[in-house]
From TrEMBL:
Protein name: D19L3 mannosyltransferase
Compositional bias ranges of the Basic residues kind: 1-10
Localization (cell): Membrane
Coiled-coil region list: none
Membrane topology, as annotated: Multi-pass membrane protein
Ligase among keywords: no
Gene source species: Serilophus lunatus (silver-breasted broadbill)
Cellular component, GO, one term: nuclear inner membrane
GO molecular function terms listed in the Swiss-Prot or TrEMBL record: mannosyltransferase activity
Disordered as annotated region, ranges: 1-30
Pfam families, alphabetized: Dpy19
Signal peptide residue numbers: none
Upper lineage: Eukaryota, Metazoa, Chordata, Craniata, Vertebrata
Matching PANTHER family: C-MANNOSYLTRANSFERASE DPY19L3-RELATED, DPY-19-LIKE 1, LIKE (H. SAPIENS)
Length: 716
């Protein structure tokens, strides 16, 4: 098991502010610039300073996470095998393809090895570029080969520095989004500071570097920034076309780098759908965004050799259904309140039926079952019946796929982020309800218009999108902890925008009858500055302490295992074991695997369940037959799984296997009435007794405190 220990001494050597809240230009000190030249100069200075601050904060964030990574692992001083072991689970699998491309005799041979791969899954040849989102590894490896940097920079550093560099893009995109929403770069500064001080809940890049989301989320943030700009009014046609191009590129890159892209963009499409139905966004722009989502995903589908999971995604079915429904219902936004509500209900039902129908038709035509485990997991998670399905329970028992822990909110509250977020969310939600009602009622009465004036100003299209976006992704984060990083980063943007927004403070002050233009401007700048000073005072010492704390990577058992495999087994040997460990085996040794952590394939899921019978109550003959059917030469057993204590009873891997096999679970506690005792003891425990029924099939060839490796007999 990997641990981090203290090091031993002596080892080794403002976007353009073209959306002002008032007709005149206002300086932070409240003075009005009546002179046109002076106002223009102030705008140029503001944009220049804001841009410099954005780039500086982005670069500082990259250096910050890179330093944390180095300090935690002493990455520059450990051996190559230790560096590779530090890429845990699926991270190691993805990085192995980068290493494979680097070590290939040529780029062409490297690509051929990925398209016709027979080492990732034994007795099968699979197309890695189709099955997995690894184009970023391919691109980076080619870039490393053609650039004259091999003598100065190791491949692993080129890889991790690229990921840390993307954090700069991420922070700059969040900064720009907040700036566009509020009209002041001070908002962007606050958003970036909140992102950094809430690092535990906004990113995990420093310890899961190759994870797909660390590649994808910076591009998603760029896309959101571009959408925010697109939803501004009075854009020139050239500006609009360029913005749409940026959105398409960002959407494409986001889709290319993460297998869960379709689910994230489905939530985004739902946000656009809700706002369009409530007449809070320009319909033409929304239609363009639907088309861009479909186009980006289809282009990725082509690059992934027509991956059927993409073609059968709910996103494509939903967006196509909306476009068809809008073509059928052309007068959706005309009429009175009841008339509009009736049309909307029909519209929603039509879109829902079309989506389910199109999706079912596509999946039936393609015989698609790659994503069924996700829907089984969701069905069980939200209480639509208990399940004994091994794959669904595997997800349900993982903390990352559980509910968002309550201590998350206490950490976010320490930086004042959560308090500000709730305050802004409440105001914006109230405004949204009022504006939506006014839009649906279709009333043009002067009195009503005056009454709603401040709400209309508060909820511009870009702010309305940001509101629904944060609500939907908040629901996702609350239900699934792993997805919190999509919400918390946007939480920083949304809270800072509200705190620096003239419209928000104008609404608050008018409600308490204290509104003046000067007072709103003063609060708009003073409150964020006070917040920044508080954050700096409270968290700067902690950040400095964190940067000065030095640890080192320490996992001698795994290092010993990998070195033994490289030295004592043939290059063609096939290994079976847990999918997390096998990803490391492939990366460190290049040996062939029976299974791996990339779970988006039905055959692989069934194979993994079979391989995991090594931890179930099965006979040695059964286990040997199963392993040999996948060409296994060696099997690795882990005490941490066989005698697992991390999960409670019912969620241990051995319990999931027992229930799936119809056997009662170990230990005290209830069992379902139809479960029966197994005829055989647990394989991973009994094999260590060296009984004849086991030794005739398995010979122990390696062991340490954590791992036991057995060689399989090859019976005729």
């Amino acid at each position: 098991m990997t641990t981090l220990r203290q090091r031993r001494v002596g080892r080794g050597t403002e976007a353009a502010e073209d959306q002002p809240s008032e007709e005149t230009n206002v300086k932070p000190d409240g003075k009005i610039l009546s002179d046109h030249t002076g106002g223009k100069l102030w705008t140029i200075i503001s944009i220049t300073v804001g841009g410099i601050v954005a780039i500086s904060l982005g670069l500082l964030t990259s250096v910050y996470v890179a330093t944390l990574h180095e300090n935690d692992l002493w990455f520059s001083n450990i051996k190559e095998v230790e560096r590779e072991i530090s890429f845990r689970t699926e991270c190691g699998l993805y990085y192995s393809y980068y290493k494979q491309m680097i070590q290939a005799a040529s780029i062409q041979q490297g690509l051929h090895g990925l398209v016709y791969d027979n080492k990732t899954e034994s007795v099968r040849t699979i197309n890695i570029l189709e099955r997995m989102n690894v184009y970023q590894e391919v691109f980076l490896s080619i870039l490393y080969r053609i650039l004259p940097i091999q003598q100065y920079l190791e491949p692993v550093y080129f890889y991790i520095y690229t990921l840390f560099g993307l954090q700069a893009v991420y922070v700059i995109a969040l900064y720009v989004t907040s700036w566009l929403l509020s009209g002041t770069w001070l908002s962007g500064l606050l958003a970036a500071c909140w992102y950094i001080t809430n690092r535990v809940d906004t990113t995990r890049v420093e310890f899961t570097i190759p994870l797909r989301e660390n590649w994808a989320l910076p591009f998603f943030a760029v896309q959101i920034a571009a959408i925010t700009y697109l939803l501004r009014t009075h854009l020139q046609p050239v500006q609009e076309r360029l913005t749409l191009m940026v959105i398409f590129i960002a959407t494409f890159l986001f889709s290319l780098t993460w297998q869960f892209n379709q689910f994230m963009m489905l939530i985004q499409a739902l946000a656009l759908f809700v706002l369009d139905c409530l007449d809070m966004l320009p319909t033409a722009k929304v239609m363009w965004l639907y088309i861009i989502q479909i186009s980006g995903l289809l282009l990725v589908c082509v690059l992934q050799f027509f991956n059927s999971m993409i073609l059968g995604s709910l996103l494509i079915s939903f967006n196509a259904s909306v476009l068809i429904a809008r073509a059928i219902q052309k007068n959706l936004k005309k009429g009175g309140l009841l008339n509009r509500l009736g049309k909307l209900i029909l519209h929603v039902l039509l879109v829902l039926c079309l989506t389910l129908g199109i999706n079912k038709f596509i999946k039936k035509i393609l015989n698609l079952e790659s994503d069924e485990h996700i829907f089984k997991f969701l069905k069980a998670k939200f209480g639509f019946g208990a399940t004994r399905d091994f794959d669904a329970n595997l997800y349900l028992c993982e903390e990352a796929f559980g509910l968002l822990p309550l201590n998350t909110f206490s950490r976010l509250s320490d930086t004042l982020l959560f308090y500000v977020y709730i305050f802004v969310l409440f105001l914006m939600a109230v405004a949204a309800v009022i504006v939506a009602f006014r839009n649906l009622s279709g009333s043009n009465q002067v009195q009503l218009m005056k009454k709603m004036e401040e709400c209309t100003i508060t909820l511009k299209p870009d702010a309305a999108y940001s509101l629904v976006h944060t609500v939907l992704f908040g629901c996702l984060a609350l239900s699934t902890m792993r997805m919190k990083y999509l919400w918390t980063s946007h939480m920083c943007v949304f809270a800072s925008f509200g705190l620096c927004s003239t419209e928000v403070w104008k609404l608050v002050l008018k409600c308490v009858h204290l509104y003046t233009s000067q007072r709103a401007q003063m609060i708009k700048y003073s409150i964020p500055i006070i917040t920044l000073l508080y954050i700096s005072y409270k968290f700067w010492p902690g950040i400095m302490d964190e940067l000065s704390e030095l640890r080192e990577f320490y996992d001698p058992d795994t290092v010993e295992l990998m070195n033994w495999i490289k030295s004592n087994t043939p290059n063609t040997a096939v290994f079976a074991g847990s999918m997390q460990l096998l990803a490391g085996v492939k990366l460190c040794t290049g040996r062939t695997l029976t299974n791996h952590p990339h779970y988006e394939d039905k055959n692989l899921r069934e194979r993994t369940k079979q391989i995991y019978q090594i931890y179930a109550k099965r006979s040695p003959d059964d286990v040997h037959g199963i392993l040999r059917s996948f060409g296994t030469d060696y099997v690795i057993l882990e005490d941490s799984i066989c005698y697992e204590r991390r999960h409670s009873r019912g969620c241990r891997l051995r319990d999931l296997l027992d229930v799936a096999n119809g056997h009662i679970m170990d230990g005290l506690g209830d069992n379902e009435p139809d479960l029966k005792p197994s005829l055989y003891p647990r394989f991973c425990e009994e094999i260590k007794k060296n009984l004849p029924s086991y030794t005739m099939h398995f010979t122990r060839v390696f062991q340490n405190k954590t791992f036991h490796v057995y060689k399989l007999a090859k019976h005729k």
